[in-house]
Amino acid sequence: MDREEVLKILKLVADGKVSPEQGRDLLEEFFESYEEEKSGRKFSIEVVDNHSGKVEAHIRLPVRLAKFVGNFVKEKDANFKIGDRVVDYNLKEVLEEVIKSGESVEIETGDKRVTIKIED
Predict the structure, then answer these.
(1) How far apart are CA 101 and CA 59, in angstroms?
(2) Pfam family example for this protein (predicted)?
(3) I want to staple 107 with a disulfide (CB 3.0 to 4.6 A). Which of 28, 48, 76, 114 is the partner?
(4) Is residue 108 over pLDDT 90?
(5) Shared-domain flag, residues 109 and 75
(6) How confident is the model at residue 55 (pLDDT cuts 50, 70, 90)?
(7) What SS3 state is found at 1?
């Protein structure tokens, strides 16, 4: 655990730059991300061609990095494409739900299957 990061958050509270409640939230997020990092859990996205069974893409990211990336997904850009079809799922919401619940999600179009899950 990075003692310096904790001290920085406490200093922000002491200097009045963030409220005590915001400081608590920052510390909770820091400790959660530390536990995630320590656990070695990975966020996994796999795209499979339904006709050939060939894995076309397999992306694995540390959960902490996946959470970070999710912060940059804008609502207007949140729906994503599988092949040439736009899928009516909000990528940011799917990402958050998979991380929170640990349950996998499968999204299937006529020719592609996408599996999003957490791997230990």
Answers:
(1) 19
(2) SHOCT-like_DUF2089-C
(3) 114
(4) no
(5) yes
(6) very high
(7) coil
